[in-house]
Amino acid sequence: MSLESIALQNARCRRCPRLVAWREEVARVKRAAFAGEEYWGRPVPGFGDPAARILLLGLAPAAHGANRTGRVFTGDRSGDFMFASMHRTGFANQPTSVHAGDGLTLTDMWIAAAVRCAPPANRPTPGERDNCLGWTAREVRELPNLALVVCLGSFAWDAALRLRAVLGHTPPKPRPRFGHDVLALANAPLPLLGCFHPSQQNTFTGKLTGPMMDAVFERAREVASA
pTM to 2 decimals? Predict the structure, then answer.
């Protein structure tokens, strides 16, 4: 199955009633700043380079970001911070991502969210996470060069560990704990590299800085190249 057909199927998913209701309500009510725009209001598929060696796994679409634009991390503050870092480190051709047709292209990286629909209060449930694992697994099976998962936050880390199991990799014992710039399962298939999520809570407080995120992306390239 092609990545394009997976994306089309993913965008029609209605498996989680709570998420369906919320994403569609947000798309109908809208934020005043975007009142004139048509919101996507559906699950947001992965996006990036089909030849990627790195999967960047986030939490979930922002209600007025990817749930509006239809492309992961596009049109919100977290994406602004992240794509600027990806541009500095050579993974993106431009430092900004405003809408799905803005010319952004990625090199050596595929971006996906652990949960594909915008959740209330940006807090998906474990069950919603598990419902979405199949979509990420389908995309990963069509990314033949994938060698590493960069996990944005502990929720994505947990999802990536479950993703590995879905793909048939032996669950690690003991279970590795998330940490910023922590590399786990280095000698196993599809290792994980942790990074604090580029949420405003983290970037505004200095918990995650531009140089810190740049360093994670540079390390990701080194690990994927090894």
Answer: 0.96
